[in-house]
Design brief:
Helix content: 40-55%
Low-confidence stretches: 1-9, 535-542, 588-597, 721-744, 872-879
Shape: elongated
Structural class: alpha/beta
Number of helices: 28
Radius of gyration: 50 Å
């Protein structure tokens, strides 16, 4: 373009010089001549003076014009001399009139060799022969494709005969003597070579692609995978050529995918694209003839600088004949795998969004749980005061609604964490039986209030000492139990734990929760584990809930390499089950399988609930003991009175405290009158509400419902001694109490660090009601000061507090203990509304020993306190 501008500048300069000389020199002289001719009649002196003046003016203008012309010519010559492109001017005859140094260098001539010579000297055949014809035709018709046009690519010839490509642009200047043609020549040898190289590279790429035994493609990331490019090999696979598929002219590639595989393919591709990862999928296509081919596809998305998807690149391979194609698939899959540097940026953006979601969930969880703890706690304290019947009814309604709201909140938060992939699992050593029994303890009060019996049976071949996440197992079991209790009005609920399979390193278990409730319609069963689905979906449904609980259970079981399911007959109850694979502890041992029943040990179960009675008999059978069951006190007395044989008498009799025909105490006295053998042990089975109460008259011990299998084992071990359960003037400790009693709790001093005033009141009253002494501080700094000056058996530590949070306060206390050098550590239990994934681990990493979430469940809090405050040393300390 610079050279073209130079050429046209030269032409303009020539025209300018012509007119400049004409108007500044020729025209004034002509005028002077006319003036002289016309002044003959004037006086001679006057004419001479005027003539002198005009001649002087003409001379001055002529001098200035010559100077301007000289400067203009000098500038033009400079431009021509320094122009990088060749500039050549010719006349109508084709004779070269001027040529600049770049042209001489380009063609290899000296100036004298070209000036006045024909321009055809610089042209190869056949341009040389055709030039005269082109010029004549243009002069006659004025039509030309080159003169005045945008330029054209031609071939030129150097002095040495070598030909080379040029780009030529020609301009025309009219003059009285004829047309002047100025051409600007540019050597495009480099550009032409690069273009040829690019074409050869493209050809090599096409050849390489065509040799790949698969269809290489580029398509839009839309619902139809609109093809922008696809190689010819697609015709071998599908029968359709590239022209049929590019732009979806004849057929969309999506239409070739087998209908049963389309959703799977779409999900796999879009999931990979959303994660910024390559995708690898296998699926079926139907070719043009209706034949089915199995294909393997690999590809990935390309993104722009802002992370927006540009297109998908990949390849499709026919691996119907898998044995012969496998090696080639691997080889060429490596060749076509693409890397995209923008993936890291896209991943960072996604992680930032996930972090914001997690922080929002954590904040909402804490902010909701804190007031809920106050509502539920205060209401529970209110229910423990003297209330009239109406007030008590209102309080129970508040409790029911608050607990229902908490369940909904927990379900929504758990489901959100699962969907965000933020629900974490831990792997720790735990006792499977203890985890199951704790689950039953937590629903004992609910079962008692509804008049339902709850039982647990773990088969003897199930390993107890395992590794996994006991909290998640309890979560599934509690969800199943709560559902069962909600839909069961009479009878009871039983939990069974069985072995599915076992290896040297792990065991797969099946946990079933059976109920005698309303059952589930057959058409609703298959949808139960879907989110927001319930068995009763009517607008007048009797039972509440979000429909998320079972969906969460499915996700939890999936993570533990298990499954979920349900079996039900409408009107006859349901059985919800799940499986989980758990690691074995390094020193764990499988409990030996039970041998033949021991005929010398006889147990009698007096229970009017047939479901619970049968379940208890199964529990005894697991321990190798045959248990006989009767449904009433009268039946029990009849059996004992008609069995006078001492050898076949029952050594252990379990009696339900709520027998409808004869009270348990009355039945115990009657039995003592009939059976005089001191080795007979009478055990009362009492409801959850009487846990920790004194023994009833005539009984040696009692078991709290739900009855723990571990308590039955202890009972049988004690009863198996030759002297039976030892008697004394003081009553035996109840077999169901594994922790501390009220006497042990008295004198245990706790430090509560809690900034919320309402929660302070709730926690203090709950702890005082359980027999604990409690001091309260409002932040972490005060907790450190109180720890330094007082003697406490444990600290209940909130996590979010002003001045100093619970994490930092715990670290400071642990540092102070290390400086003391005594090796003693005070138990610190997190009591916090932080219930998101990772919060437990954060508490433990800060140096805390245990973790209880708000709203506080009194049973869980009591278990935690008993774990950390009951020991022989504490017993001596509190007297």
């Amino acid at each position: 373009m610079v050279a073209l501008w130079v050429a046209f500048s030269l032409i303009s300069l020539a025209v300018f010089a012509y007119y400049l000389i004409h108007y500044t020199v020729v025209a004034p002289i002509e005028s002077l001549r006319r003036s002289i001719d016309g002044s003959a009649s004037l006086k001679e002196d006057r004419a001479i003076h005027a003539l002198n003046d005009e001649i002087g003016a003409i001379g001055r203008r002529l001098h200035q014009s010559l100077n301007d012309l000289s400067e203009s010519i000098a500038r033009t010559e400079t431009i021509l001399e320094t122009a990088p492109d060749a500039v050549i001017s010719i006349n109508e005859k084709g004779e070269i009139l001027s040529i600049n140094p770049s042209a001489l260098a380009m063609f290899g001539y000296e100036r004298e060799e070209l000036i006045g010579r024909q321009i055809t000297r610089l042209m190869p055949q056949p341009h040389c022969e055709n030039h005269s014809g082109y010029m004549n035709r243009y002069l006659q018709t004025g039509f030309s494709k080159i003169v005045g046009g945008p330029g054209v690519e031609l071939t030129a010839k150097r002095k040495d005969g070598n030909e080379f490509p040029i780009f030529l642009k020609i301009g025309e200047t009219k003059s009285p003597s004829g047309s002047l043609f100025t051409g600007v020549f540019r050597d495009i040898s480099v550009e032409t070579a690069a273009r040829i190289q690019l074409q050869e590279s493209a050809h090599r790429f096409e050849t390489l692609v065509e040799n790949i035994p698969g269809a290489v493609y580029r398509c839009a990331c839309d619902s139809q995978w609109t093809m922008e490019y696809i190689s010819d090999f697609i015709k071998t696979i599908s029968g359709y050529g590239p022209k049929d598929l590019i732009g979806n002219k004849i057929r969309s590639y999506v239409d070739l995918i087998h209908p049963d595989d389309r959703r799977t393919v779409e999900t796999a591709v879009m999931t990979a694209v959303d994660r910024g990862k390559p995708f690898r999928i296998e699926y079926r296509i139907v070719d043009k003839e209706g034949q089915i081919h199995w294909v393997y596809e690999q590809g990935q998305a390309n993104y722009d600088e802002e992370g927006n998807i540009l297109h998908l690149d990949g390849a499709i391979f026919d691996f119907t004949d898998r044995k012969t194609a496998q090696e080639r698939l691997i080889k060429y899959a490596e060749q076509i795998e693409l890397q995209n540097m923008d993936l890291e940026e896209a991943l960072e953006k996604a992680e930032s969004v996930e972090k914001m979601k997690s922080e929002f969930l954590a904040t909402m969880s804490h902010e909701i749980r804190t007031p809920m703890n106050g509502i539920i706690g205060m209401n529970n304290l209110l229910l423990e005061t003297d209330l009239d019947s109406e007030q008590e009814e209102f309080g129970k309604s508040i409790k029911s609604c608050a607990e229902g709201l908490l369940t909904i909140i927990n379900d929504i938060l758990d489901f959100s964490k699962i969907e965000a992939g933020k629900l974490l699992f831990e792997t720790i050593d735990f006792d499977l039986q203890a985890a199951m029994e704790e689950s039953l303890d937590l629903i004992g009060q609910i079962a008692y209030e509804k008049g339902l019996e709850v039982g647990l049976l773990i088969q003897s071949d199930v390993s107890r000492e395992v590794r996994g996440d006991p909290g998640r197992i309890r979560q599934i079991v509690l969800n199943y139990l709560n559902n069962a209790l909600k839909f069961t009005q009479t009878g009871g609920v039983n939990v069974r734990v069985e072995k599915v399979d076992e290896t040297l390193d792990d065991i797969s278990i099946r946990v079933s929760v059976e109920d005698s409730g309303v059952g589930i319609p057959e058409d609703r069963i298959q949808h139960l584990f879907n989110p927001f689905t319930q068995a009763d979906a009517s607008t007048t449904r009797k039972y509440g809930g979000t429909g998320l609980g079972l969906a969460i259970c499915r996700k939890l079981a999936d993570h533990m390499k298990g499954e979920v399911g349900v079996e039900s007959v409408e009107g006859r109850g349901s059985t919800f089950w799940f499986t989980a694979r758990l690691e074995k502890q390094v020193k764990g041992e499988v409990v030996a399988e039970t041998g033949a029943p021991q005929s010398d040990r006889r147990v009698l179960v007096v229970e009017d609930n047939s479901m619970h009675r049968g379940f208890l008999q199964e529990q005894f059978l697991v321990n190798g003991v045959l248990a006989q069951g009767v449904e009433s006190g009268e039946k029990c007395l009849e059996l004992l009175e008609t069995d006078p044989s001492k050898e076949s008498s029952h050594s252990l009799i379990l009696i339900d405290s709520n027998l409808r025909d004869i009270g348990s105490s009355g039945l115990a006295r009657r039995i003592r009158e009939i059976v005089h053998d001191e080795s007979v042990t009478l055990v009362e089975m009492v409801p959850w509400s009487r846990k920790g109460s004194a023994l009833a008259d005539g009984f040696d011990a009692y078991l709290s419902k739900p009855i723990r299998q571990s308590d039955l084992n202890r009972l049988l071990n004690c009863n198996h001694q030759s002297t039976g359960i030892p008697k004394s003037n003081s009553p035996l400790k109840p077999l169901s109490e594994s922790g501390t009693d009220s006497t042990t709790k008295r004198g245990v001093r706790l430090l509560l660090a809690e900034d919320n005033v309402v929660n302070q009141k709730v926690a203090m009253r709950m702890l005082e009601n359980e027999g604990y002494l409690c001091d309260v501080v409002a932040n972490g700094l005060e907790a450190i000061e109180a720890f330094a000056r007082g003697q406490y058996h444990a600290i209940l530590m909130d996590c979010q507090m002003p001045e100093m949070d619970g994490y930092e306060a715990t670290r400071k206390i642990r540092e102070q203990e290390q400086r003391n050098g005594t090796g003693e550590k005070i138990p610190i239990i997190a009591m916090t509304a932080n219930a998101m994934a990772g919060d437990r681990e954060r508490c433990l990493n800060a140096g805390m020993d245990d973790y209880v979430t708000k709203p506080i469940n009194l049973d869980l809090l009591k278990l935690a306190l008993e774990r950390w405050t009951y020991s022989p040393e504490v017993s001596k300390l509190v007297g």
